[in-house]
Specification:
The chain is of the alpha+beta class. The chain has a domain at 26-141: Alpha-Beta Plaits, CATH 3.30.70.3270. Helix content is 32%, strand content 15%. It has helices at residues 6-20, 55-59, 104-108, 134-141, 158-194; strands spanning 42-45, 65-74, 84-95, 114-117, 131-132. A three-stranded antiparallel β-sheet has the order 2-3-5. A two-stranded antiparallel ribbon has the order 1-4. The structure holds iron/sulfur cluster (SF4) (2 copies). The site of one iron/sulfur cluster has 12 residues, from helix 2. Residues 60-62, 64-65, 94, 99-105 line the site of one iron/sulfur cluster.
Length: 216
C-alpha cells in the first residue's frame, strides 16, 4: 500500500534534481553551437582539382550532383607531339534538398575536389535555392577547416614528394637555363676581347718581306 503523498514527494524530488542540474538548452541562433571539426554541413568544390571524371555523380545514391562539360583540344606541348583533349567543366551543382549527407561523393573523388564544410546555415524558403551551383560551391571552400596535423610518426603524403619532385625539376631547368645564358655571355665577352678583324676594319701596317726574304 503506497504511503499517501509519496507520489508528490517523488515528483518534487525530480523537480529539485532537475533545477540543480546544468542547463543544456542551446541559445541558438544567439549563441553558435560548438560543432565537432568533422561536421557535415555543406559540400565545397575545389574546381581546379576537378577533372570532370563524373565519379561523384555516378556514385551519389540520390543522383543530386549535376555535371555538364565539353571537350577541348590542347595543342601538343612539344613540336611534333600529339594533340590532347581535356574535359572542361561547364556546370557543377549539388541539390541539397535531395542530398542525404552520406559523404560518398567526397570519399570517391580521386582528385580531392570535394570537401566537407561545417557550415549549416543555408536554409531557404524556396526549395530551388537549395541547388547550389559551382560558384556557391566554390565559396563554401573558404569555410572548409584546415586538415589536422599529421601524427609525428606518419608517413609523408605522396603529394609532398610529387610537389618536391616538380619543384626540383623546375629549379634544375632554371639553373640549366641560367648556366647557358652565362656561357653565352662569356663567349660573347671573349670574342669582343680578342678583337677579331671585322670587314672594313684596317688590319694595320703589313711588312713586305721583299725578294731577299725580308732583309733590308
Ligand atoms: S553527400 Fe551523398 S547524397 Fe549528398 S551529394 Fe554526396 S553522394 Fe550525393
Ligand atoms: S569525382 Fe571529383 S574530379 Fe570527378 S567529377 Fe566529381 S568532383 Fe570532379
Amino acid at each position: 500500500m503506497p504511503i499517501p503523498g509519496s507520489g508528490l514527494a517523488k515528483g518534487l524530488a525530480v523537480t529539485l534534481r532537475t533545477m540543480t542540474k546544468k542547463t543544456v538548452t542551446a541559445q541558438y541562433p544567439d549563441v553558435q553551437p560548438e560543432l565537432p571539426p568533422r561536421s557535415r554541413g555543406v559540400i565545397g568544390l575545389f574546381e581546379e582539382n576537378c577533372t570532370v571524371c563524373m565519379l561523384c555523380a555516378r556514385e551519389c545514391p540520390d543522383w543530386c550532383i549535376y555535371i555538364d562539360s565539353h571537350k577541348e583540344t590542347v595543342p601538343a606541348a612539344v613540336e611534333g607531339g600529339r594533340e590532347r583533349s581535356r574535359n572542361v567543366l561547364d556546370r557543377f551543382a549539388i541539390d541539397f534538398s535531395l542530398c542525404m549527407y552520406c559523404g560518398i561523393c567526397i570519399e570517391v573523388c580521386p582528385f580531392d575536389a570535394l570537401f566537407w564544410s561545417p557550415e549549416f546555415e543555408y536554409a531557404e524558403t524556396d526549395i530551388h535555392e537549395l541547388t547550389h551551383e559551382r560558384d556557391k560551391l566554390r565559396d563554401w571552400m573558404w569555410t572548409v577547416p584546415a586538415p589536422p596535423a599529421l601524427d609525428p610518426g606518419a608517413e609523408e603524403p605522396k603529394e609532398f614528394a610529387a610537389a618536391r619532385k616538380s619543384a626540383d625539376k623546375l629549379a634544375a631547368a632554371q639553373a640549366a637555363e641560367a648556366a647557358q645564358a652565362a656561357e653565352a655571355a662569356q663567349a660573347a665577352q671573349a670574342e669582343e676581347g680578342a678583337g677579331p678583324t671585322r670587314p672594313g676594319q684596317d688590319p694595320g701596317p703589313v711588312q713586305n718581306p721583299g725578294p731577299e726574304g725580308g732583309q733590308a
